[in-house]
């Protein structure tokens, strides 16, 4: 009976525009599934849908889809730079090449943990080092890795303060300089040394490696290895 329905005869709301929330959501999903260039569009369209819903020109029943599209779009935009960095590193590792003796024979990017004594490379940007570009040592390079030493603290020891870690690293690398180069540090005035030491995060995972690198004292690039003939 018509009289039994309280909404009988009421006009169904009509909205000026049809919703595009489903399209925005699809773009957001694709943006997280390999099509990262679609993520900004999902973010933009999702926000546009939310604005239209708030303005009353589109149905509010699509709000959840529009909001999900916006969130997925934001996540996609945030992940794009990270994916790009990882891709560059992975591609660099693919191009880089060592020979059967482990000597770098083709320039490429290596993770810091994969470096070996005798490697020649360029200074990485920033203070937090995850990877470096290595070259064959007969090509111009910024540094040569001459020793890898392990900090003596055990697996349960907390991360040391930066000053003490640097002091230990400097002493250890000083002691390893002469045996590698063939002359004592004070007898090699054109050279100096630096080091890479573990970050707090890798320390918690058991990383204790300190990597000692020599370089020109005036900042000029080196050509050829500085490894002593009798080493």
Overview of the molecule:
With 231 residues, this protein is of the alpha+beta class. It folds into two domains: 16-91; 99-216, no CATH class. The protein is built from five helices and eight strands. It has helices at 21-31, 39-55, 63-95, 162-181, 200-204; strands spanning 97-98, 104-106, 108-111, 120-121, 131-135, 143-150, 191-196, 209-216. The strands form two sheets. Strands 3-5-4-6-8-7 form a six-stranded antiparallel beta sheet. Helix 1 (21-31) packs antiparallel against helix 2, helix 1 runs parallel beside helix 3 (63-95) and helix 2 runs antiparallel to helix 3. It is elongated.
Keywords:
two-stranded antiparallel sheet; 37% helix; single chain; elongated; 8 strands; 231 residues; alpha+beta
Helix content: 25-40%
Q: Return the string of H and E elements.
A: HHHEEEEEEHEHE
Global morphology: elongated
Largest sheet: 6 strands, antiparallel
| CA radius of gyration | 29 Å
C-alpha end-to-end distance:
102 Å
Strand order of the largest sheet: 3-5-4-6-8-7
The number of E-state strands comes to 8
Poorly predicted sequence stretches spanning 5 or more consecutive residues: 1-12
The average pLDDT score comes to: 83
Oligomer: single chain
| Tally of DSSP helical segments | 5
Quote the beta fraction.
15-25%
Judged by helices, strands and strand pairing, the structural class is alpha+beta
């Amino acid at each position: 009976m018509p009289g039994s329905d309280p909404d009988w005869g009421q006009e169904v709301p009509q909205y000026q525009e049809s919703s595009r929330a489903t399209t925005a959501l699809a773009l957001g999903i694709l943006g997280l599934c390999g099509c990262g260039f679609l993520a900004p569009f999902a973010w933009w369209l999702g926000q546009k849908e939310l604005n239209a819903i708030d303005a009353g020109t589109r149905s509010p029943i699509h709000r959840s889809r529009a909001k999900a599209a916006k969130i997925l779009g934001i996540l996609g935009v945030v992940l794009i730079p990270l994916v790009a960095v990882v891709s560059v590193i992975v591609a660099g590792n693919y191009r880089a090449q060592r020979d059967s003796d482990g000597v770098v024979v083709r320039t490429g990017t290596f993770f810091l943990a994969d470096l070996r004594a005798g490697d020649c490379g360029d200074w990485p940007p920033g203070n937090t080092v995850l990877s470096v570009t290595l070259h064959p040592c007969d090509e111009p390079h910024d540094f040569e890795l001459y020793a890898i030493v392990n900090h003596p603290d055990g697996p349960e020891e907390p991360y040391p303060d930066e000053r003490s870690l640097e002091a230990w690293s400097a002493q250890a690398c000083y002691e390893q300089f002469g045996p590698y180069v063939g002359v004592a540090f004070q007898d090699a005035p054109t050279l100096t040394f630096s080091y890479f030491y573990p970050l707090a995060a890798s320390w918690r995972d058991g990383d204790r490696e300190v990597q000692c690198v020599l370089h020109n004292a005036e900042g000029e690039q080196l050509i050829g290895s500085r490894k002593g003939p009798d080493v």
